[in-house]
Amino acid sequence: MLTLYDHPRSGNCYKVRLFLALIGKACQSTFVDVLARKNQTAAFERISAFQQVPAMTDGDITVWDSHAILLHLAHHYAPEWLAPLPRIGAMHAWLSVSANEIANSLQPLRLTRVVSHAEAAHHLGVSEALLDIPGMQTRTDRVLRGMDKRLSEHRWLAGADAPTVADIACYGYAALAEEAAIDVAAYPAMAAWRERIRQLPGYVTPGT
User: Fold this and answer.
1) How far apart are CA 12 and CA 165, in angstroms?
2) What is the pLDDT of residue 100?
């Protein structure tokens, strides 16, 4: 039985819930109240090395980090979501974009909009005075323009004929762009890609 350690407002947790729904894989959800610091325990650290959600147990296997979980699920239960060999490098590159560029732009920008600046600073590990919201906005625009260019040339990020785990990884926070006060109409190819993902069988909305 799969168990997901989850928070409903987390874009990283949403990626995993969405992928599970798309592949039709049942999973037990365990709520972790990160805002109340319920993740900061020795018991949870044994599940997730940096006490972050999402984390997952699959029998006697424990996996943490949303991208590692997506790859684990694809390799074990849904290999059709892995790019074909000629596109595997592109798939991993866009997984890296999700883990780096998006995680350092859109993800923290959205956080500053949905929780207090003091709470956002705590989760980002900086003082409130060092929250660089204009910098986040600039980086977010750069990342979204890069995604938009790629998606104006390919239906899916890895360039394959079907979506891969890279699309789900990048979609997690792209789906929440409006919560970061982003005008998605400024990125028409990305907006069309978001709609393609919403049309996939089994799709679930954020917060579901």
Assistant:
1) 13
2) 98
